[in-house]
Batch of 2 targets.
Target 1
Amino acid sequence: MRNRLLEHYAYCPRQCALIHVEQSYEENVYTLRGNRDHRRADEPETELRDDGRVERALPLYSEELGLTGRADVVEFHDDAPFPIEYKHGEQRRHDSGRIQLCAQALCLEEMTGRAVSTGALYHTGSNRRQEVTFDPPLRADTREVIGAVRAQLREQRVPPPVNDDRCPPCSLQRVCMPDAVDAEHRQRREADRLFTAEE
Ligand code: SF4
């Protein structure tokens, strides 16, 4: 399982299923800008600095979690890894990148045997780093998402739409049709409820 799956699921389980179960993918202005912002971090490179080493596009794995992936940037200070994930635009309310970053930290801990307590999301719109602490709740959430994604892929399940403020910037709106599908789900739930009440 690749760690990008986790970000998709953490943002919206239906988005994850549409991409990874139904193989639907569409670009929009947000994904195109995101690809552009990732370009430098996509090229493998090692940079030696006075305060440590910087690896770009570093392959990651965790045998324990069954994860593979790639970190945009990992800084090593005294051999302690500090992962950094590039995010297009400014910090958002639905910041699914924290789960993805924490999964990278779990991979790095297994790969290096060193504790990884913090990392950062780098928001290209504001040129700012948002430090992320890999505390027990975030680690637990990340492991929960890993389990949920695995179940979704195994069961080939496509959940109903979230139909909230995550939808306008989502590139899959056209294939997802959150309004129409949500209305259909609500009607079906209402019909089930009436049917059960009359029994
Ligand atoms: S449009 Fe909304 S419900 Fe549909 S995949 Fe995107 S975020 Fe999820």
Note: The pocket of iron/sulfur cluster is lined by residues 12, 14-15, 18, 161-163, 166-167, 170, 172-173, 176, 178 (CB under 6 Å).
Target 2
Amino acid sequence: MLIYEALKKDHDALKPLLDRLVQSADADDATRMALIGQIRDELVPHSRAEEAVFYNSLRSIDETKDLVMHGYAEHMEAETMLRALQGQEAVKVDWTTTAQKLREALLHHIEEEEGRIFESARQVLAEEEAIAMAEAFEQMKPEVREGGFMQNTLDLIANVMPQRFATPLRNFLHK
Ligand SMILES: [Fe+2]
Ligand SMILES: [Fe+2]
């Protein structure tokens, strides 16, 4: 399997969950929180592994650098919205509006990834590299799932830092 197929498989799994989220305004709290949990468990390991394996390779290449930097920012934005929904009792956000925004933002992000980012990546990555990346991606996801929220935030920061600063931080986080 190539990295593009591995990533698309996750995107396809996420989409129906986002549809259900938008339609869940009238469901009870437990149902909505379970749905948020499912989305988080799909989205966060996907995003961290995607950044570490796919984005981090592409950001050292001129042709793809700007595209992936934009992608990191969209990951951050989506996870912030997800947390707003999770803490909705406290901040009293309008569920449907925020759920719709999150769905729109992620659909846009997925479209850009599968479109412009995949297109550029195919031009700079050899097929063996794309296969190796898919394997590394699948291996990394369960590890992210086990890490806590703080661990994930720090990993996200490590993923957007310049490589020479990110490596010592990552070594520290995972020692
Ligand atoms: Fe993705
Ligand atoms: Fe992404």
Note: The helical segments are 3-22, 29-58, 62-86, 88-91, 95-124, 127-146, 149-160, 163-173.
